[in-house]
Amino acid sequence: MKNSFPQSRYCVAAVLLILTGASAAVGQNSAESPQLGGGVDPTLTIDGVGRAQIRIAFPAADVDSSLTGEYLEAAREVEQTLRDDLEQTIVFNTQGPTELAVLSLTGDRSQDFEQYRSLGNEVVLLATIKPEGDKLVLDGWVYDLPSKQSILGKRFRGTLAQTRLIAHYLADAMHFQFTGRPSLTLTTIAFQSDRDGFQELYLMDYDGRNQRRISGHKSTSGYSDWSPAGDAIAYMSYFNGPPGIYYVELETGKKLPIYGEGVLNISPSFSPDGRSIAFAHSSQSNVDVYRCDRTCTQPLRLTTSRAIDTNPSWSPDGQQIAFTSSRSGRPNIYVMSLDGSNVRRISFEGNYNDGASWQPNGTNIAYSSREGNKFRIAVTNLVDLKTKILTRGPDSYEEASYSPDGLRLLFTLRRGKESQVYVMNADDGSDWRQLTHQGNSSAADWSNFKQK
Fold first, then answer.
1. Where does the pLDDT of residue 297 fall: very low under 50, low under 70, confident under 90, or very high at 90 and above?
2. Res 44: pLDDT
3. Lowest-pLDDT range, 43-52, 98-107, 172-181, 382-391?
4. What is the phi-psi region of residue 83: left when phi exceeds 0, alpha when psi lies from -120 to 50, beta otherwise?
5. Are 433 and 408 in contact (CB under 8 A)?
6. What is the spatial distance between Cα 73 and Cα 447, in angstroms, rounded to a whole number?
7. How many Cα atoms within 13 Å fall on the side-chain side of residue 90?
8. Of 52-56, 283-287, 401-405, which range is least confident?
9. Gap between the Cα atoms of 239 and 248, Å rounded
10. How far is 297 from 123, CA to CA, in rounded Å?
11. Mind listing the domains of the chain with CATH numbers?
């Protein structure tokens, strides 16, 4: 992936500051935060021109000396999480304490800012972590080094259980300040795993940390899809007999049925407005794509071929549904209108294509494409139908799922009998990172950006 993003006019003569009242965002379950530094929080104008990564100095956080024991450990986790968040974004090129150790810092910001700048940095992040009752408070200030002006000031507070979350909030605020877009730091990934003996539904943070189980059916459950608002996850489960479609309300933990009639109900997909769900259903022998609302009583049949039609995936604009069909003799990816009309095939590589995932801008569809007996991750452009293969190697690469910014792809790597979830850059298949390591994990799906 190219290290570029929308240009922010923050440097020297190009700076354009819009002064607004500071409204420091608050972490989950936190009290209202006071304003920082005089009550103004300049924001940056984004003009849409690409540029190189912003070089940012991030010296060691100023951790309150009164912190000990688990609070000190939590403070260290806050700082490390923030560093990891900045490292994983394409926006910042960060110099930490190791790179900055060559400097002779004095504590005088005017002099220190020039030293940070001497190493090629454009901005600096100064962070402090201190106690407040049973909570930790994270303050983050970002300064423009040439002008020495403050361009961001935020405060977040949270309990010991929220240490990673407050770091994610600051990283997200910085990303938004420089790009006008949210970051992945506050997103969540759903996946399925058999690590506890049964295939159940799990969640993890965007970086693979904080993995936790959210279903306990003691049956085969998974193949999930997030609601656009992030309030629910639709999934398939065998826990009540034949596979049915259910959803879990994340705030309450309630598991509610959507549809379980017939002999097969699998692969749910939420519409972009969150009101409808498409899924594959069979009442006898043929499998077709249907859609209905969350309280489904009479689903609408969309496909009527004698082939197997399954794995629907709703387009970002809500006007189309991609799905897998064997109507051409072998499984391929097709796209149709919401009423089942205007069906057209979009995959032509390999001998078996399955599992469509729409890029959030609607430009591309990623899917699994088999060559020989191994699957690869393929991406097809919907305008010219050109296809590129992102993964090659001795293993099988399946179940692609785009991140909400469209820049990364989750996928399942199957090696022999083992499967684990990975993430890679969506444009060229580079920068693989393994996210799961326990049991067999697969079929990951990325949440939308956190609503604010």
1. confident
2. 33
3. 43-52
4. alpha
5. no
6. 29
7. 21
8. 283-287
9. 14
10. 57
11. 5-179 (3.40.50.10070), 188-446 (2.120.10.30)
pTM here is: 0.87
Please report the pLDDT score of residue 294 as a whole number.
Answer: 87
Whether 12 shows a pLDDT value over 50: the answer reads no
Q: Own/partner pairs for 306-313, CB < 8 Å, 24+ apart?
A: 309/280, 310/266, 310/267, 310/280, 311/267, 311/280, 311/354, 311/355, 311/356, 312/267, 312/269, 312/278, 312/279, 312/280, 313/269, 313/278, 313/356, 313/357, 313/358, 313/365
- C-beta separation of 408 from 185 below 8 A: no
Q: Nearest Cα to 63, choosing from 154, 156, 129, 133?
A: 129
Structure tokens at 67: 């912190």
Judged against a pLDDT cut of 60, whether residue 22 lies above it is answered with no
* pLDDT bracket for residue 1 (50, 70, 90): very low
Query: Tokens standing for 404?
Result: 């909400």
